[in-house]
Amino acid sequence: MVAAVQFYASDDDVTALLDHIGEGRTATIWQWPLVEREPVSLSRTEAGGHRSVVVLSEEFGPPVVMYRDDPVLREGTVTAVMSTINFQRLDPGPGVGLVHPDRSPVLFWQPGRVGDGELTTHLIGSQAQAMRAISPEYERWVKRVMGWVRRRGTKVWGLEKGAVRPDLDVRVRTVSAVYALPGALRLLEGGATGLD
Length: 196
What we know:
- This protein is of the alpha+beta class.
- It has six helices and 14 strands.
- It has helices at 11-21, 44-48, 78-90, 131-134, 136-152, 182-189; strands at 3-8, 27-31, 34-36, 53-57, 65-66, 96-99, 106-110, 114-115, 118-120, 122-126, 154-157, 169-171, 178-180, 193-195.
């Protein structure tokens, strides 16, 4: 991800985040990276079962979907090269495309998990090389969502010495900051292990 925040979240934390985003009112969740010509919205529960999804706000409209014969794949950009590789790797059938990360006003979300005394991190943000190029409003939306996580979360991992909570069992390989939303923090303080 180009701009993202990594965090732990309990089920209640995820509910609060999705309520904040407007899911169910002004926002919907779709599968990612492959998108059907007639996509079906996922429920919150279904979204949590996927490795990656996108969150769309009706304020910004649908994502731009690329198909195998799309001229954008011949542009020679990093996005075009990576998308071509993804088409080859994923081999989508007819009528199935990929979300264009540099033109789509969506939040990319990799849901984490809670279970058996372990939490794995969530990641939410944008894959656009230049969010403002999509629209200034979209850039503000992404930053508001990431800011919401940072403001409500507690930093439990990061490069700064004070960011690492020695009282918590957090085992991540990233050098980026990792936050724990309130419910997840209670789980970690209760002895749960935080993983990537």
